[in-house]
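Recall the central idea of this unit: under ordinary conditions, the amino acid sequence of a chain determines the structure it adopts. In this exercise we apply that idea directly, starting from the sequence alone.
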Amino acid sequence: MAITNFEVYATRLRDDKLSVKLKLTIAHELCESLEFFQLQDYSRFVSILWPVIRDLLLKTPAVFMSTAPEQKLRSTLLEIIQRIPHSEVFRPIVLEVVTTLVSLVKVENEDNAVVCLKVIYELHRMYRQLLESVAQPFLELASEIYRNADQMLKAMDSMDTPASLSTPNVNLMSPSAMSPGPDAGDATSKNLNKAMSSFKVLTEVPIIVVSIIQANRRHAEQFVTNILPLILHMLELSQKGAGLQPEFTSHSLRAANSDLITAQSKTLSFLAFFARGFTALLLPSQDRIAQLTLNLLCACPAESTATRKEMLIATRHVVSTEIRKAFVPLADRFLDMQVLVGSGLASQCILKPFAFSLLADLMHHIRAELSPQQLTLMVDFYAGCMHDQSLSSGVHTMCAKLLHNITECIMQIPDKRHGRVLLLSILRTFVSSFSAIGSSAKAAIADIRTDHAYAEDKIYGPGELIRTNAFEQGDKIKELRFLLRSLVTGCKNVIYALRKCDSTLALGMHPQTHSVRDDDSTAPPQPDSDAAGSTTSIISNQEAELAGFELDLLAALLREGLQACRIHDIERVK
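Accordingly, the structure predicted from this sequence is:
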């Protein structure tokens, strides 16, 4: 494109006599031609047309009607800025561009402001050193936006049209670009919120603040101290009509609630970043943070899978710090899969690995502080997971490790009967897992001997075949071997804990029963007496006493464990 064409575009866009609709046509034509430019064209484009675009954006007032020609023109001009390659051609004007966009966020509608923030993030990511002077003004803007959270909630009551859902629920560290088309909104007109009172705009703020703080640490501590109360207050905002069924809420209200919960998930990720870098500043509010995290997981809609995923990841970062101590009273709530993954089908299929990773980190660090009731819930939860064949062998391995890691905590339970019951429950779960591994090994060996490949429907199970989606056979066998190793290690710990538990107390017997029975050992047996029945149900040991059902369990453990070890014979059978 010749340089005279750039000058023509600049002259026509600067002409005050031209109508807005005609300028929109010119801007749209210019936007569509960007992809045909060469590198030298972009340099001339920036030097000639950027001043014109800047003046148009700053001098024409923002509008808040989606179908207004002025709105379409402003949206197209911002799209032009967004689509220009952010390479070296931007270096001479990058500071001016970012300063302009920051000022626009304060007056624009929410749709245009979202585009401004996305461009600011991309430019700051590439030109951090050149944009140090913009850091403090943007941090002040971020604080002001969070300070308007109550106004955003009030604006939800006055919404009569659906809020735009163009901002996707993506990970905080991976913002996606939005490119509003020039013809957007032709079909239906809607009112647009002010940018400073929009949850959609607030959603884009945290990632930019994180980028600024990483590049300018001197601004960090004071900013965190000032914005932390605003962040916590924003996380406390509740959804409108949250207790109502979807059929009793309007589409606009559901869309607004979606914007709110998305903004809160981004803010929780924001808080997780502070928790890892500025833990000392957050410790005074740790109990409030733990409760807010739980409330957000409970309030997340069933269909918001990506938002819930982001919450789980953020929560995992939070519990990796000293703040995790505040989660001890809430541990039983986090053992509820309904809280962690919700009731949505997509969440149930996708988010379980994230939920198990979060629980593994949390329970591993706080296990010594759990109450006997919480330990019981933990054993029941992870035992149930190991019985769930829809979960992968990797998850089963993780559950086995967590179960044998808490045996030392179970040994400290004052009620030895309670502790022994938990240990036997863990051992019974391990026996079932040994049995499952043995069955898989038997099926694989039998299939090899009949000159077939591994019988996937027998080794995997139909549910796991669907879940794993073309799992490699060798990988499955390798996972089962890892699980077997964890089970053997776990059995060692559990049996050691059983030996240290007082069996007579666990069985409801008085400790003197054993000595009385020894004194009467020379007497003839009385098979019909109650004492004889009790004696025959107890097997004496030097360190403890085992009931008959406990011996049966240990026998099953050895039997099924030996069968499970056949998983190592598959290569020899070949």
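Confidence is low (pLDDT under 50) at residues 160-186, 241-248, 462-472, 505-544.
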